[in-house]
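Case study 2.
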Amino acid sequence: MRGGGLLSPAQAILIEIWPPAEIGMAMALFGLGAVAGPTVGPTIGGFITDHFSWPWIFYVNIPVGAFAVFMAYTFIRNTPPSSRGEKIDWWGIGFLAIAVGSLQLVLEKGESEDWFHTTYIVVLAAAAFVFLISFIWRELKIEYPVVNFSIMRHSSFSIGMMTSFMLGFAMYVSVFVFPVFCQNILGFSALQTGELLFPGGIATICMMPFVGMMLKRGIPAQILSTIGMIGFFIFSYMMASSNVFSGTENFFWPLIVRGIGMSLLFVPLTTLAMQDLKGKELGQGTGLNNMMRQLGGSFGIAISTVFLNSRIALHRSVLLQHINNYNDAFAQKYNAFYNGFLSKGFSVTQAKSMAFQAIDGSLMKQVFLLSYNDVYLFVGTFLLCCIPLLYLQKFKKKPVIASGGH
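Prediction:
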């Protein structure tokens, strides 16, 4: 379940108990906690993977989970039971679970299974569509829906759902691409890759309280989010300049820029989306907002994988045009490999075959490098194009979220 049932209740609890004027700081503290795990996790995971067996990256969650259970049981008060006889919409929950679960599988397995040429992908896609329509129809008909779509009447929230989707798209794609790029193309270890992500996460954590203070002092969330999106594009542009000789030192500042950009996006975008919601709408809103961010990540990874494969095919076809005897660079490299294998005692036939294999390996490394650079530019440009959406939301210098308890 990956903790999907934790984010929304935690955020809703903060909004419920925090004074309305301090909600910006509350969301900053929530964001700090949300990025602390992903910051420490890759480094610890890389160390465990390099020095122990990979199953231990799951076992390490046991003491953390136990501590979280203890803290929740000790400090979180029970919610008073409803006096209006509201019933739990189990059918709605079931429809939503099947729809989202089917869609998630389609997005995760579609590329490797040749999309709709595979029977079970077609079945899952149909199930996602049918159960999503059934879910929406049921929620609009019953008295106590599990998701109250009436909150979509708030334009800031409706647009906020879109910006949360786009944030998830960019955030998860960058997290998905970077480790694969570093380990498969540049040959970094899992620990080295985790250590590279650590400073950027620390930058995000350090920036979160300042973002909360800026919101509290009246700096519009749109301005902060715009700076964050521009910062993410700068990170993407810097990463798109990578080459096969890039070392760990070349990624420090790009990841610092990304970390600062994420801190300027996470809290202001949430604040903009939630600013018009009141009372019970807050719980509904936090759940939908987090779900859209997760779906954005799923769509982002699926789309970026398709885009990556198309760029690999394109770059390979272009570079293969240079593999011919009339290209001096190719001839020099081929002869170097060929003579090297001959000097090691291989036969002429073996040396020729191995030289071509070595050339192909070098070519594919360059193909993957160019393709991953294209993905960075793609996702950075995508987020940059989303800036106009921010200014369709209400422009408040000090957005206040009205909690149910105040």
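The first helix runs from residue 4 to 17.
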